[in-house]
Amino acid sequence: MLELDNVSIAYNGVKAVKGVSISVVEGSLVTLIGSNGAGKTSLLRAISGLVKVSGGEITFKGTRITNERPNKIVAQRLVHCPEGRHVFPRLSVEENLRAGSHVSRKTSAQVMGEVYALFPRLEERRRQLGQSLSGGEQQMLAIGRALMAQPRMLLLDEPSLGLAPLAVQSVFDAIERIKSLGTTVLLVEQNAHLALKVSDYAYVLERGSLRLQGPSAELADSEEVRKAYLGI
Ligand SMILES: Nc1ncnc2c1ncn2[C@@H]1O[C@H](COP(=O)(O)OP(=O)(O)OP(=O)(O)O)[C@@H](O)[C@H]1O
Ligand SMILES: [Mg+2]
To answer: DSSP string spanning 161-191?
Structure first.
């Protein structure tokens, strides 16, 4: 469904991502793990057109989207839920959700119903301001807002960052439900343990290059991953 072929990204001439090839099969949940500064966010931003790639090609459902404008990419229902959540603090939950919608009010109301079914907590708090939500609720809102664009494929950047263990678990539960409802997911995570548990296939990025890849269950068992990312 999504193919990255030999993608490189440079900032002021310095390469942050060096010739990375990734493929995500429709209906699967693929994770990209790696330590700070490995280039994970840069890759997601390149896929959604927020940074330019300096080399390589990106294709989504057979269409070349390399360096395409972000609104064109969202229109193909390839949707990015950014690192750091970026909830609008002074807007209500419902207004935050509406901001993610690109369709008519009627369709939007229907999709919002689906988001509330997935996150009942958001419905209970729909008049509450974004800034008054807990970290876990803000993450749910950020995911919910991305879902308002009815993604065929969702890019999730570190949804568990900074959350307490219970909130982390509920975010991962939600990711599994989103997948089971038919959305393809590319998940960037530093929580390698949980990411490998919920995903089908995994890539390990190190200083801008792919270091390992394979079915998640196999990677979780590999000596190298256990030592470097699972602390075992
Ligand atoms: N806008 C930018 N300008 C210059 N350098 C950047 C920019 N964004 C990222 N970089 C650099 O690119 C490299 C990869 O950063 P990136 O944010 O993609 O890593 P990451 O894997 O997402 O890290 P983290 O786990 O900390 O979120 C880093 O060395 C970073 O300093
Ligand atoms: Mg990042």
So the answer is: TT--HHHHHHHHHHHHHHHHTT-EEEEEES-
* Per-position pLDDT tens, the chain of length 232: 999 999 999 999 999 999 999 999 999 999 999 988 999 999 999 999 999 999 999 999 999 999 999 999 999 999 999 998 899 999 999 999 999 987 777 778 889 999 999 999 999 999 999 999 999 999 999 999 999 999 999 999 999 998 999 999 999 999 999 999 999 999 999 889 999 999 999 999 999 999 999 999 999 888 887 877 776 6
**Can you say how many angstroms the Cα of residue 193 is from the centroid of all Cα atoms in its chain?**
17
187 contacts: CB under 8 Å, gap ≥ 6: 29, 30, 31, 32, 156, 159, 175, 195, 198, 199
CA of 217 to the centre of ligand 1 (A): 28
Query: 4 - beta bridge partners?
Result: 22, 58
**Domains recognised in the chain with CATH numbers:** 2-85+152-228 (3.40.50.300)
* pTM given for the model: 0.94
Q: Which ligand is nearest to the CA of 39?
A: 1
Q: How far is the CA of 76 from the centre of ligand 2 (A)?
A: 24
Q: How far apart are CA 55 and CA 91, in angstroms?
A: 39
Provide the token pair at 111.
């999709």
167 neighbors 134 (Cβ within 8 angstroms): yes
Ligand nearest to the CA of 37: 1
Angle between helical axes of 105-118 and 135-147 (0-180°, round to 10): 140
